[in-house]
Amino acid sequence: MLDWFLWRASYARATQIRDTYSFVLDVSPLYQSKTYNIDQEIRVVMPSQTDVTGASPSDKATTKGNLATFVIHTGDRYPSSYQVNSAPALKDLP
What we know:
The chain is mainly beta. The protein has strands at residues 14-17, 20-26, 40-45, 50-56, 61-64, 67-72, 81-88. A hairpin with a 2-residue loop joins strand 5 and strand 6 (67-72). The chain is elongated and about 50 Å long.
């Protein structure tokens, strides 16, 4: 059985400094450092025209364009937060 839910947050939760963005998803203290018998995927889509420049915890993250994906497997410990930073997408040189 596949259990999942979708949670959307507005960009109001993202901090903008000039043309860069930072998004932090805090984990409840009730879950921090605990493990569960589940696999979970968290996707964070940053503003269009930006590329993800960093995601933390980096050992749980993959990035592509303006998308950061965190994957938690059975037995992984939850961090205190998930953070994603993005900046204007680099243009390809001709």
